[in-house]
Design brief:
Blueprint lengths: L1 H26 L8 E6 L7 E4 L5 E4 L3 E4 L5 H13 L8 E5 L5 E7 L5 E5 L7 H7 L12 E4 L6 E4 L1 H5 L13 E4 L5
Length: 189
């Protein structure tokens, strides 16, 4: 009898562990624009929110309105929502945020590459600057690899990057984010 009970418990555990790992993978990482999130507030069912983030990375909740979640982890998002709810609404809000469906992210590569285009990054993968340039067929012979620019979604400033220093190992490769625009200018001879 003990053997059957032990085998049953092990079988149940073997079934649940992959599901738990899958859930953890779904909830890990940062929230991207257009991801679907589920927000629950302990003992405040009317504040529960499930929906897709808008293109600007926000979601609208009862009482507090739009909250920017893009780029935050689920823990950071919960803390941000708790702070807004605490500011005049609830004494000690307890918020839980989980990521439902992830949307693929997009990076645009423009200028002097073989195949300028919008490149889709699967939600579960990190893509670096050198990888996306390789996907774009590499820098053309008239492209200036020393003066790339990187414009981040929502950022006012443009980063100037020397691709040669990355490929030579002098500086680290740059992980790309959803909405990044990489531009490779033409060389001036």
């Amino acid at each position: 009898m003990k053997t059957i009970l032990l085998q049953s418990c092990l079988a149940l555990l073997a079934t649940l562990l992959p599901l738990q790992a899958q859930e953890a993978t779904k909830s890990s990482g940062t929230i991207s624009r257009l991801d679907t999130v589920e927000i629950t507030v302990f003992r405040e069912d009317e504040l529960a929110t499930r929906g897709q983030l808008s293109p600007d990375g926000t979601i609208t909740m009862p009482l507090i309105g739009a909250v920017r979640l893009q780029g935050l982890t689920t823990d950071q998002a919960a803390t941000a929502i708790e702070a807004k709810l605490h500011d005049g609404y609830l004494v000690r809000p307890q918020v839980s945020v989980s990521i439902g469906a992830r949307v693929k992210r997009a990076v645009t590569v423009l200028g002097q590459v073989q195949k300028p285009d919008v490149y889709v990054i699967p939600a579960d993968r990190t893509l670096t600057l050198t990888q996306v340039i390789a996907m774009a067929g590499g820098v053309t012979r008239i492209g200036n690899a020393g003066k790339l620019t990187l414009k981040r979604l929502g950022a006012a400033e443009v980063q100037k990057i020397d691709l040669k220093s990355i490929t030579s190992g002098k500086t680290s490769d740059i992980p790309l984010r959803d909405g990044d625009v990489v531009t490779i200018p033409e060389s001036l001879f």
